């Protein structure tokens, strides 16, 4: 499994049989370094409906004639916008085109603004993605919560991607505890895109190392393989 980071919470996951992008906030992301039209994937996975995660999902899905996986209300929103979709919900899973997706809880919110109105887009989620015998856990935007320990106990997670930005998600201290509970190497997410969520990813990974956990403070465009 090869994971490429495109800033904020966007991850491209590539295996022998499939390529998947998660939370493709690219065109509005000052750090992505890639355009939606350059993405070639078999599926788009979304953790929730905020614009910095929904991003370019519909455009990418249309360009690639591939489905968007999302919690039911968000999937319906994307379907109305013209994309193919796969409806999931918290605790549900689906095997498709050589990979398996399972949605986990996340403690956050999920909506999008259109004009003067906010549209509710269902519950936020984390994603367990299994491809080529490896499992990635993308936590989405979340606070720390106790069942992260259960997620770590019940799943053989090879790599976990955690937000560390604080203010809008958990910060580094809570993410450090989440990393212990998930029992996996870590990639940092959802930080430094905007002034309110500036964090030192290298310092966070140094703290992980002190706990005996590998950490990877990837920069946009950088990859790792597991």
Task: Quickly list its features.
226 residues; alpha/beta; seven-stranded mixed sheet; 16 strands; 22% helix; globular
The biggest beta sheet is recorded as: 7 strands, mixed
Radius of gyration: 16 Å
Distance between the termini: 5 Å
User: Strand-residue fraction?
Assistant: 25-35%
Going by helix content, strand content and strand pairing, the class is alpha/beta
Mean pLDDT: 97
Count the E strands: 16
- Listing every helix as H and every strand as E from the N terminus to the C terminus, the arrangement reads EEEEHHEHEEEEEEEHEHEHEE
Query: What spatial form do the alpha-carbon principal axes imply?
Result: globular
Low-confidence stretches: none
Strand arrangement, major sheet: 6-5-4-3-2-1-16
Separate helix tally: 6
> Portion of residues in helices?
10-25%
Structure explained in plain terms:
By secondary structure, the protein is α/β, with parallel strands linked by helices. 22% of the residues lie in helices and 31% in strands. The strands form 3 sheets. It has a 7-stranded mixed sheet with strand order 6-5-4-3-2-1-16. Strands 7-8-11-12-13-14-15 form a 7-stranded mixed sheet, with helices on one face. It has a two-stranded antiparallel sheet with strand order 9-10. It is globular, with a radius of gyration of 16 Å. The mean pLDDT is 97.
């Amino acid at each position: 499994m090869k994971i490429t980071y495109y800033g904020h919470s966007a991850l491209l996951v590539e295996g022998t049989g499939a390529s998947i992008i998660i939370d493709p906030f690219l065109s509005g992301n000052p750090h992505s370094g890639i355009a939606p039209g350059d993405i070639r994937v078999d599926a788009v996975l979304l953790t929730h409906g905020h614009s910095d995660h929904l991003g370019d999902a519909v455009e990418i899905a249309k360009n690639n004639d591939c489905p968007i996986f999302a919690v039911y209300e968000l999937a319906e929103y994307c379907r109305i916008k013209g994309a193919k979709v796969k409806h999931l919900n918290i605790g549900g899973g689906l095997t498709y085109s050589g990979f398996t997706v399972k949605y986990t809880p996340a403690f956050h919110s999920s909506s999008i603004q259109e004009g003067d109105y906010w549209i509710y887009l269902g519950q936020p989620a984390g994603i367990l993605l299994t491809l080529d015998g490896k499992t990635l856990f993308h936590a989405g935007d979340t606070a720390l919560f106790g069942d992260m320990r259960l997620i770590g106990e019940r799943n053989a997670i090879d790599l976990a991607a955690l937000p560390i930005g604080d203010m809008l998600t958990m910060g580094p201290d809570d993410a450090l505890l989440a990393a212990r509970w998930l029992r996996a190497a870590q990639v940092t997410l959802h930080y430094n895109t905007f002034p309110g969520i500036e964090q030192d990813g290298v310092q966070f990974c140094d703290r992980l190392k002190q706990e005996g956990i590998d950490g990877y403070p990837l920069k946009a465009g950088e990859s790792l393989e597991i």
